[in-house]
Each structure stands twice: as structure tokens, then as C-alpha cells.
């Protein structure tokens, strides 16, 4: 018989009954408290190592790394920019359920329950140290948290052990099933450990906030320079100002965010450095933010789109970016594009959170306004969008161009290296496809019969939009009126005045880009290089 069974009895004695409902419930509570202690202490330890080393963040990052593209798209489609919150909540719920189950297990097998806690600690440690940007020290918070959880579980479950005394009471009623343990001792121990854990968690959060305060101060103190090459003024008529229509410039707060960072990196601008090196780099060098600010600063309006954006989806936005030309930096390093005999055809950009993004060298150096941006809509980049510096490359989906929190640029080849998303089934190269979207009327809207403005946006970055057409119920295509064009790197608003008749109708839209190519109506999913198809909405005209 196992030595760690709290119900072990000498041979020949009556076997006590299994734990009753009260003890089982308190054992589950013990596991939950032990789990809470583990996370709180781990958060405190992570504040001393780095916030990304916390077990929830580490495990969440590992889950994202191993999530199939279809599942990732489902999360983005259903949760949008709240997909990270949904993942964190899901992890916490699962941890809570496992912790309660381990508490019940420990009530009868304390050593086995402790071993289960250590296994979960090991999972967190491996996940943290095994992240692309991970270092061995990242395992420490999970290890410390697991050790504390084992001690707490032993303490609390020990208070649930039956007190020695007589056997079953007269009449067959067994007081040992739910009674006979140290109730008062359990309550005191549970309350004390929960309080200490809460204090540890609060201290950890304050330490983390203190560390992040320096990064916030550096952003607050950053004064953006006036651009030597300013963006043209937004043309009169570029924004049609129709109710329900997306504005020409997307405010920072409304700009989509899709990335794998469960904890948004907060990098101190003064400490930030970017290294440029690799194949064909004749003069490797490292620059800081103030080095970039002393270069020629350019300002451009550029529309960015996520490859996970479904037909008609919201994962696209247009902003005014401020930064320096990436091609100039590469030429200063001695880089030549393949068309000029350069040996590298891929730029691998690395983020502080370990993300890798592969971008064609030829595209960056073909004359378009590929940038290292540090400003967005007249302000320093928000942390969520890559402060202090990010890449912006017109005409490419974000997963092959828009590296946020960038800290390293390596020149290599597509044959030699697959970036993060390519290893997960996405295409190596992904120019933005011609797309259009109906913003108003909304699906299932009920406009009144008469003239109804059907309006939206269309985009084909670095090619521009030359025509937009709308049709009703599969009929003939009608040419929409285009808003004034910004640049070929921005989206374009459009509107068609629909003489709507009563009834249920289906509206469809398609766009033609600046090369004369018309958007295909064939519906495909987002994997491997972006969705295709005409956006449609169904409305009921009253």
C-alpha cells in the first residue's frame, strides 16, 4: 500500500470510508488556492525576470505558436482584437479546473497530487524558456510558483486529514466521512495563504508597472521631428463623410491589432537598438532611435491589411506614418537587391517578443515608401502598434512586412530561412489582393424605400483603385462614384446611390485596381495568402 495515502491503515483494521462531500469540496478549494498562490508568486518572480516569463503568458504564447492557421483564423474572426484576452481567460479557467482536480487527488494521494503540480510547473518552465525569445532564466517564475503550490497544497490538505478517534458511531453513521478533521485550522491556513498570495501578486504587478513606467515615460517625452518629406495633404473629397462609412484616416484607438503578444512589449526608447546584418551586408551596424531621428524623416499615408482579414472583414486600416526609409538604411549597410546582384532576397525582421517576419528585399528597395516608422497619426507609435519602431511596407500583408517592436534585421534568402508564419502554413510572399467592402448599409439593415447610399472602401495597396461597381440581386453592375484618391498606397472610399425598392435584397461589390485587374468573385479562405471574393450584404427594404 502506498506510503503517502492518508487513509492507510494497519493490516486487519477496518478501512475508513472514502472522503465525504465536505472534505472533497475543501480539497478542491485547496487545489484552487494552491494554484492561485502559484500564479501570484510566479508573477512576482516574473517581475524580477521579465513580465513575458510569467506562466500564463508563456503557456499562452506556446499555445499560439502551435495553433493551426484555421483555429487562429476562427479566434480572430470571432474575438477580433480581444483574441488575446479570450485566450488568457481560457487558460485561467482550465488551470482552475486542473487545480481543483489536483486538490481532490491530493486528498487521497498527497505525493501524487504534488507530482501533478510539479508537472504543471515544468510545462510552464519549458514553455517560457522555449519561446523564440526565451532564455533559461525565464523558467524561474514557473519553477518557483510550482514549489510554492506544492507546499501550500501539503499544508491545506494536511488540515483535512481525519483526526484519530473511535470508529463508526452507533447506528452505522460514520462521522469520519465529513467530520473529524481540523476545520478551524483549515480555515485559518486557507485564509492566510490566500492573503499572502494576493499580496505577492499585488507586489508583482507593482514591480512590473514600475519597470514599464520607464518605457511609458520615454514615449511621453519623445518629440517627433517635422518630416523633411511630408505626406501630401489629404485631398478634398477623399473622405465622403457618409454616416456608417469608415473614415479615410483610422484613429489609433480603432486601428486593428493582430499579433501573438499576450503581453504588449513596453520597450524604453532610450535603450532600444536595431541591428542590421547578414548576407550581402558589407557594413553591419546598430542604430538607436535618436540615430534614426537624425536621418531624413518621411511622412506617408499607408493602408495596412492583415492576411487573416476575411472578405468584408475589419482587419484593415489607414494611417499617417512617420519614419525613415528602410531602403536608405539597407544601402548604407551596403545591401544590394537581387536585381542588382545582391545575394540576399529576404529580410528577416525580428521583434523583441521573438516574432520573425520575412520580407522580399526587392520589394523594400524598389522605390516604394517602405519605412521604419516611429510615428502614427501625429503621435509616437502606441505600444500596441509597435513603439518605439516598427516596419511599414505598402502593398504587402502585415505578416510579411509589418514587424512591430523590431530590434533586428537579418539579410538572408527564402531558401535558407522560413519566418514564423511560413512555418505554420502561410505563403512566403503575399502581396495584398484587390479587395472592397460595403460599410453601409449594414447586414440585415432595414432602410426605407427610395434612394439609399451604398458606400464602403476598396484597397489595392501600391496599385491603387480605379473603379468600384455594385450590383443588386445578381443583376447588372453599376459604377460607383469614387472619392478623391489619396495615393496608390491608401484605400479609397466609394458610394453608389441605390434606388431601393421594398423587399429583401442582396448587394455585392467588386473593385478594379490601377493595373486594370478586377477583383475575382471566387471565394477562398485566408490561408495561405489572403481571402478572395466579393463582399455581399443582405438588407430588408421597408
Features:
single chain, five-stranded mixed β-sheet, alpha+beta, 10 helices, globular, five-stranded antiparallel β-sheet, 542 residues
Gist of the model:
The protein has 542 residues and is an alpha+beta fold.
Would you count the extended β strands for me? 18
**Count of runs of 4 or more consecutive helical residues:** 10
Low-confidence stretches: 1-17, 167-177
The shape is globular
Cα radius of gyration in angstroms: 30 Å
Overall mean pLDDT score? 90
| Distance separating the two termini | 78 Å
Estimate what percentage of residues fall within beta strands: 15-25%
Helix content: 25-40%
- Main sheet record: 5 strands, mixed
- The H-and-E topology, N to C, reads as HHHHHHHEEHEEHEEHEEEEEEEEEEEE
How are the strands of the largest sheet arranged? 2-1-10-5-6
Helix- and strand-based class? Answer: alpha+beta
Helices and strands in order, then pairings?
Blueprint: H1 21-49, H2 55-65, H3 69-79, H4 83-108, H5 110-129, H6 140-158, H7 183-221, E1 273-278, E2 285-288, H8 289-293, E3 298-305, E4 316-325, H9 326-332, E5 346-351, E6 356-360, H10 361-364, E7 371-376, E8 379-380, E9 390-392, E10 406-412, E11 435-440, E12 450-459, E13 465-472, E14 478-479, E15 481-482, E16 492-500, E17 503-513, E18 535-541
Parallel strand pairs: 1-10
Antiparallel strand pairs: 1-2, 3-4, 4-7, 5-6, 5-10, 7-8, 7-9, 11-12, 12-16, 13-14, 13-17, 15-16, 17-18
Helix pairs in contact: 1-4, 1-6, 1-7, 2-4, 2-5, 4-5, 5-6, 6-7
Give structural notes.
By secondary structure, this protein is an alpha+beta fold. Helices cover 32% and strands 21% of the residues. It has 10 helices and 18 strands. The protein has helices at residues 21-49, 55-65, 69-79, 83-108, 110-129, 140-158, 183-221, 289-293, 326-332, 361-364, and strands at 273-278, 285-288, 298-305, 316-325, 346-351, 356-360, 371-376, 379-380, 390-392, 406-412, 435-440, 450-459, 465-472, 478-479, 481-482, 492-500, 503-513, 535-541. The strands form 4 sheets. Strands 2-1-10-5-6 form a 5-stranded mixed sheet. Strands 3, 4, 7, 8 and 9 form a 5-stranded antiparallel sheet that branches. Strand 13 (465-472) and strand 14 (478-479) form a beta hairpin. Helix 1 packs across helix 4. The chain starts with 20 loop residues before the first helix and ends with a strand.
Amino acid at each position: 500500500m502506498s506510503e503517502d495515502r492518508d487513509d492507510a491503515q494497519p493490516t486487519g483494521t477496518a478501512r475508513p470510508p472514502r472522503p465525504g462531500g465536505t472534505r472533497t469540496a475543501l480539497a478542491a478549494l485547496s487545489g484552487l488556492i494552491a494554484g492561485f498562490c502559484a500564479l501570484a508568486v510566479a508573477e512576482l518572480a516574473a517581475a524580477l525576470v521579465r513580465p513575458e516569463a510569467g506562466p500564463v503568458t508563456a503557456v499562452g504564447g506556446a499555445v499560439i505558436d502551435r495553433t493551426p492557421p484555421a483555429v487562429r483564423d476562427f479566434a480572430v474572426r470571432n474575438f477580433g482584437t480581444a483574441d488575446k484576452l479570450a485566450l488568457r481567460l481560457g487558460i485561467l479557467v482550465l488551470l482552475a479546473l486542473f487545480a481543483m482536480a489536483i486538490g481532490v487527488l491530493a486528498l487521497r494521494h498527497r505525493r501524487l497530487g504534488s507530482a501533478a503540480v510539479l508537472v504543471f510547473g515544468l510545462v510552464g518552465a519549458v514553455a517560457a524558456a522555449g519561446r523564440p525569445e526565451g532564455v533559461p532564466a525565464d523558467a524561474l517564475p514557473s519553477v518557483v510558483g510550482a514549489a510554492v503550490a506544492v507546499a501550500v497544497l501539503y499544508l491545506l490538505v494536511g488540515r483535512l486529514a481525519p483526526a484519530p478517534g473511535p470508529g463508526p458511531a452507533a447506528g452505522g453513521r460514520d462521522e469520519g466521512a465529513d467530520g473529524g478533521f481540523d476545520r478551524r485550522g483549515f480555515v485559518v491556513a486557507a485564509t492566510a495563504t490566500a492573503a499572502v498570495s494576493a499580496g505577492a501578486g499585488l507586489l508583482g504587478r507593482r514591480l512590473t508597472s514600475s519597470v514599464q513606467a520607464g518605457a511609458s515615460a520615454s514615449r511621453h517625452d519623445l518629440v517627433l521631428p517635422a518630416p523633411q518629406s511630408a505626406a501630401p495633404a489629404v485631398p478634398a473629397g477623399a473622405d465622403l463623410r457618409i454616416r456608417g462609412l469608415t473614415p479615410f484616416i483610422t484613429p489609433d484607438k480603432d486601428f486593428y491589432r493582430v499579433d501573438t503578444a499576450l503581453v504588449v512589449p513596453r520597450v524604453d526608447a532610450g535603450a532600444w537598438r536595431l541591428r542590421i546584418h547578414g548576407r550581402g551586408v558589407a557594413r553591419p551596424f546598430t542604430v538607436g532611435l535618436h540615430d534614426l531621428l537624425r536621418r531624413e524623416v518621411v511622412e506617408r499615408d499607408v493602408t495596412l491589411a492583415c492576411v487573416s482579414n476575411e472578405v468584408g472583414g475589419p482587419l484593415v486600416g489607414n494611417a499617417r506614418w512617420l519614419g525613415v526609409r528602410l531602403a536608405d538604411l539597407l544601402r548604407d549597410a551596403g545591401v544590394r537587391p537581387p536585381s542588382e546582384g545582391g545575394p540576399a532576397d529576404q529580410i528577416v525582421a525580428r521583434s523583441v517578443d521573438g516574432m520573425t517576419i520575412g520580407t522580399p528585399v526587392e520589394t523594400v528597395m524598389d522605390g516604394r515608401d517602405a519605412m521604419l516608422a516611429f510615428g502614427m497619426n501625429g503621435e509616437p507609435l502606441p505600444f500596441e502598434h509597435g513603439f518605439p519602431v516598427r516596419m511599414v511596407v505598402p502593398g504587402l500583408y502585415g505578416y510579411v512586412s509589418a514587424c512591430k517592436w523590431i530590434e533586428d534585421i537579418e539579410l538572408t534568402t527564402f531558401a535558407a530561412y522560413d519566418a514564423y508564419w511560413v512555418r505554420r502554413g502561410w505563403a512566403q510572399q503575399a502581396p495584398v489582393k484587390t479587395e472592397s467592402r460595403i460599410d453601409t448599409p449594414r447586414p440585415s439593415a432595414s432602410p426605407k424605400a427610395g434612394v439609399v447610399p451604398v458606400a464602403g472602401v476598396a484597397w489595392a495597396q501600391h496599385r491603387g483603385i480605379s473603379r468600384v461597381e455594385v450590383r443588386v440581386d445578381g443583376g447588372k453592375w453599376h459604377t460607383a462614384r469614387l472619392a478623391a484618391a489619396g495615393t496608390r498606397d491608401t484605400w479609397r472610399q466609394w458610394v453608389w446611390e441605390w434606388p431601393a425598392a421594398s423587399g429583401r435584397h442582396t448587394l455585392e461589390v467588386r473593385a478594379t485596381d490601377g493595373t486594370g485587374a478586377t477583383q475575382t468573385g471566387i471565394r477562398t479562405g485566408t490561408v495561405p495568402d489572403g481571402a478572395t471574393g466579393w463582399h455581399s450584404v443582405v438588407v430588408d427594404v421597408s
